[in-house]
Design a protein that fits this description.
Elements lengths: L2 E7 L2 E5 L2 E6 L6 H8 L9 E6 L2 E2 L5 H7 E4 L11 H6 L9 H14 L15 H13 L5 E5 L7 H14 L4 E5 L3 H7 L2 E6 L2 E6 L1 H5 L3 H6 L3 E5 L7 E5 L1
Parallel strand pairs: 3-8, 3-9, 6-7, 7-8
Antiparallel strand pairs: 1-2, 1-4, 4-5, 9-10, 11-12
């Protein structure tokens, strides 16, 4: 799948293809605003963007069409306490032209992948915050969109589930474009194909983990005490700490 997303922010341009792009930056730097702008939600950031899939420009005229190409997980999804897990994930299929049988097969696979199979008949109000977050993640993936936007998807997840999610997104990003906001710098630098570091509603630097680590921008954004060291296991990866 050939995906080409160009985002214009003032005089800057971000050019994204298939891969896992992780947005980092201090609170209020514009990470969430960028994702919201991409799906025409109210945002404090004004951008222009162009999406091409298989070299064909995609014109999005309504929410139903947008859902076919772009899926979005907000920081705080709204939900009904009385809806059950299965039906919540099934909502992700509303714009998909599939038979009901095929939809149900794919939903069952997602429930299994995100350790939700045994909870599928539970109401959302009966499960934990981390379990509920995995439901929202599964619903987002269920859209089968080529572009996936996730705003802090690791919220409420235990460490095992965070790692499992990022490994899944890393694999998914081989054929999709995944733009993901994270606050955990160590997970960001370990799993991202590209890091987008934001400050003051603009992109300070975009590049590989090594390129971002070797710049002075990290200290500018997170303070002079932030330090890095080569990861003890993974080549060209880094660990972040405050010295």
């Amino acid at each position: 799948m050939d995906i080409d997303l160009r985002i214009h922010i003032n005089t800057q341009q971000i050019h994204c293809h298939q891969g896992l792009y992780i947005l980092i930056g201090e609170n209020g730097s514009g990470k969430s605003s960028l994702l919201r702008s991409l799906i025409a939600l109210p945002s404090k950031m004004q951008i222009d963007h162009q999406l091409k899939i298989q070299s064909q420009e995609i014109e999005i005229k309504n929410d139903h069409q947008r859902a076919r190409f772009i899926s979005y997980l907000p920081q705080n999804p709204s939900y009904s306490h009385y809806q059950n897990v299965f039906n919540c994930v099934l909502q992700g299929k509303y714009a998909i032209d599939q038979s009901e049988a095929q939809k149900r097969i794919e939903i069952q696979n997602l429930l299994d992948r995100f350790d939700l199979y045994a909870l599928q008949d539970k109401r959302l109000g009966e499960i934990s915050g981390g379990e509920r977050q995995r439901v929202f993640i599964a619903r987002t993936i269920a859209q089968n969109s080529q572009v996936i936007l996730m705003d802090e998807p690791t919220n409420h997840l235990d460490f095992y589930q965070q790692v499992k999610l990022l490994q899944y997104l890393q694999a998914l990003a081989q054929n999709h474009l995944v733009l993901c906001v994270l606050h955990d710098l160590n997970l960001s630098f370990l799993y991202a194909d590209q890091i987008i570091l934001m400050k003051d509603l603009s992109v300070k630097i975009m590049g590989t983990a090594k390129e971002v680590i070797q710049s002075d921008v990290l200290k500018e954004c997170f303070g002079p005490s932030i330090c890095s060291m080569p990861h003890p296991i993974y080549e060209n990866k880094y660990q972040i700490y405050y010295g």
